[in-house]
Amino acid sequence: MKTPNRVRIIEVGLRDGLQNEKTVLDVETRIAFAKRLAQAGVKEIELGAFVSPQWVPQMAGSQELVSKVVALKREKVDGKHSEFKTVRLSALVPNTKGLEGAKQSGVERIAIFASASEAFSKKNINCTIKESLVRYREVVEQALAAKMSVRGYLSMCFGCPFEGKVSEAKVVKLAEKLLDMGCDEISIGDTIGVADPVQVKRLGKALKSALGKDAMAMHFHDTRGTALANILASLEIGITSFDSSLGGLGGCPYAPAATGNVATEDVVYMLHRMGVKTGLDLESLIETSRWLQPKMGRELPSKVARAGLPRIIS
Amino acid sequence: MKTPNRVRIIEVGLRDGLQNEKTVLDVETRIAFAKRLAQAGVKEIELGAFVSPQWVPQMAGSQELVSKVVALKREKVDGKHSEFKTVRLSALVPNTKGLEGAKQSGVERIAIFASASEAFSKKNINCTIKESLVRYREVVEQALAAKMSVRGYLSMCFGCPFEGKVSEAKVVKLAEKLLDMGCDEISIGDTIGVADPVQVKRLGKALKSALGKDAMAMHFHDTRGTALANILASLEIGITSFDSSLGGLGGCPYAPAATGNVATEDVVYMLHRMGVKTGLDLESLIETSRWLQPKMGRELPSKVARAGLPRIIS
Known about the structure:
2 copies of one chain form a homodimer. The first copy, chain A, is of the alpha/beta class and 314 residues long. The first copy, chain A, has 12 helices and 10 strands. An 8-stranded parallel sheet of chain A has the order 1-10-9-8-7-6-5-2. A two-stranded antiparallel sheet of chain A has the order 3-4. In chain A, β5, α4 and β6 form a beta-alpha-beta unit. The radius of gyration of chain A is 18 Å and the shape is globular. Chains A and B meet through α8, α9, α10 and α12 of A and α8, α9, α10 and α12 of B.
């Protein structure tokens, strides 16, 4: 089987994960979480979101959190760099107001969040896709002018809870628009965990032709257990960047009992067993997952954290 | 992607699933469970095990259960056949004593349980692999003489909690031996859920060359979340038979908190979404999983039963 030698893991637990959890973690705990991720070798961390805490209480304090972590990244203590020195930090920004906060924090990268489903765009961000792109164009332009880089999320790429099927041509076109706008990478979201490997290969190939593999990441939710199979399907067509969330933090607002984001440690377990490098330390990830679980007040969905590593292997 | 048009699902929840659960279900509940499976279109059901209830209390009453279901299969009520008419029924048989029970029940197919790991064979069935094969040869001969067919399980094919790595050459050789002995199918077990897709393709191809695809089934546990990815890998090399357990019934005695067998409804969800036929009715399976869950006194691991079907799709 042809698989890449190495893949990039983009950790989204602190943002996409936590914002969908009932339990709200304070800033200090989130910083401790970020430190543990960096110590485990994670090189890309989305730290929070510059959104109103009225709407998303889980992201309250993102200004403080991002500013502090950025400061840690820049600082030397006793002549030594912190664990964040080589980590690319980012934060979600919904609008120009949020961008002001991001600029103040000094974060080097922002993310914007568009949808491939018209119905979801209206429900989630209260505007049409077209209107959202107009808004984001301004955000991206200002961010680039401030020397920040921009990641674009595209949600509901494999199906929508309101619209049902989502046109693959539309997904490709929107991804291209986000890239043209100045994003350097598009995260292709299976936001409600409905994708299957055949669909992933079909849409993934179309996106790879349009964007190039280095300008895309796959963002799978494990709502119906297919996330690792979908990652395998992506690897088989040469995609090498994946979003994941430590412990499987996150949920699915459209299926309250269900699992959300795929767990970082489950992804890394499968990849390492397959001989694919990630640069991450799996035991540290599992330890962090177990450290985090009591703070979240629920059993986190990661299967590897629950089962532990086998006493083997290769 | 080349995938088969249709696959066989062998339901092992009533045996491999239940025997690893803490909760013991009575015979009537297990018969009701089997009926629901048959009504959902399941064509192969392992009903129980002819083992001592002292050792495996969960399998107590297998004699009565299997006899009753066999009778239902043969009977007509008001001129109508039961839901079991076209279902192949089987039961696990550890030795010639168990075989006597199986004969009395009238079941058409038995299964024997060998291991690819010497250490596990000793711990699990208290004899070496060689000794187990001598014992099973006698069981298989007598079963064939009684016009029963025989399935062979081979456990720990991808790794063992005691030995670590298991030689792939040894797995192939043992599978061939079981076939030569008179088994018509070997179920290749990832008993502790450690397999990865690369390993599955490598060992799967070797087994397919040695046995032929119609004489093998893959038996994955989802202990570390990789079962559906491993099924995808198997499909991609042309394997078309899979064991699964409704709801994900079962566990892993070597990782008590962990998930066991892959859930039938999760497998069927992925396959149907991929366009692969199973002949099973997914909604009925989910309904049965939800019917079963309160009886088991724990949340069953199936993700599809928890999330439900998406409001979509193809």
